[in-house]
Design a protein that fits this description.
Layout: H1 2-33, H2 40-58, H3 66-85, H4 93-115, E1 130-133, E2 136-139, H5 140-162, H6 164-174, H7 176-181, H8 186-209, H9 219-233, H10 238-259, H11 264-278
Antiparallel strand pairs: 1-2
Length: about 290
């Protein structure tokens, strides 16, 4: 029983890491532009499909497809900023948020038209591989995904706190008008923020495709959890997203183990509501400085 419980805890930890990576894209856009990107889940979905087809057509290892999906995600994010979000500037934030919701619907229905509603999976030599940690069983694909997601999140944190571009992003997140007066290209920072969000979405999709079903509406699952995690960790807080992702991953894993899988999402929503009521600013309470 103890070994099974440990396996569940480790599973929740690994899932939470990937949830956090998805949420970091939402955090980045909100922190810089104060926009909630409803299409972040569809970025994940596209990353999953691209990984699937690269594996299916050319037998590429799913993790090697990161060299394709990461730049594609960044380019798509920049394109969305240039072609959609830029055109909404000067209008209320509500208009920009609705624009991202419209993008969600477009990408979702485009996927249904192009690939159909069938569920797909990726089979690799290591799909069923696992190893033991203190008696608990750790599947290899989620473990690799967790390590990769954690490295990327920590890299984003270092980008924001240790580089000139990161300082410019943080200054833009504080006040875009003052950032312009200081000579910071606020528009370039907006492109960078959306590009990073696209990259994290596609990379998350690549990680998830190694052990999760792939279908056109899968993004809806992840965008809901991403919103919960962003609120838990504090809007605009990258490390808060990592903490929030682990909390949600563990609550779902342990809740599903104790009460049944049908309770997993309900428990996450309860935690979400309690945090909103008791600590609306999130676990850390402030944006990343």
């Amino acid at each position: 029983m103890a070994n099974v419980l440990l396996s569940v805890v480790l599973s929740g930890l690994m899932l939470g890491g990937v949830y956090a990576l998805i949420s970091s894209g939402l955090n980045m856009i909100y922190g810089v532009m104060k926009i909630i990107n409803f299409a972040q889940g569809e970025f994940v979905m596209l990353g999953m499909y691209i990984t699937y087809w690269l594996n299916f057509a050319w037998k590429l290892d799913p993790f090697l497809t990161l060299f394709v999906t990461a730049p594609m995600g960044f380019v798509l994010g920049v394109a969305v900023q240039k072609l959609i979000i830029n055109r909404t500037f000067g209008h209320p934030i509500f208009v920009q948020t609705v624009a991202t919701f419209g993008l969600l619907l477009i990408l979702q229905h485009a996927a249904l038209i192009v690939w159909g509603a069938s569920f797909r999976t990726i089979e690799t030599p290591f799909s069923s591989s696992s190893f033991e940690v203190l008696g608990g069983v750790v599947p290899l694909p989620p473990f690799i995904a967790f390590i990769g997601a954690t490295i990327i999140i920590l890299s984003l944190y270092l980008l924001l706190t240790r580089t000139v571009a990161g300082m410019a992003l943080r200054a833009t997140s504080e006040n875009q008008q003052i950032a312009r007066l200081l000579g910071i290209g606020a528009r370039k920072m907006n492109y960078l923020a959306f590009g990073i969000a696209g990259l994290t979405g596609f990379v998350s999709g690549t990680f998830l495709s190694t052990y999760f079903y792939i279908y056109p509406t899968v993004g809806a699952i992840f965008i809901l959890r991403a919103f919960i995690i962003v609120v838990l960790g504090g809007m605009g807080n990258i490390l808060g997203a990592l903490a929030g992702g682990i909390v949600i991953g563990e609550s779902e894993a342990l809740g599903g183990f104790i009460f049944g899988p049908q309770w997993s999402e309900f428990i996450s929503l309860v935690i979400f509501v309690l945090v909103l009521l008791l600590r609306p600013a999130g676990i850390f309470g402030v944006r990343l400085k």
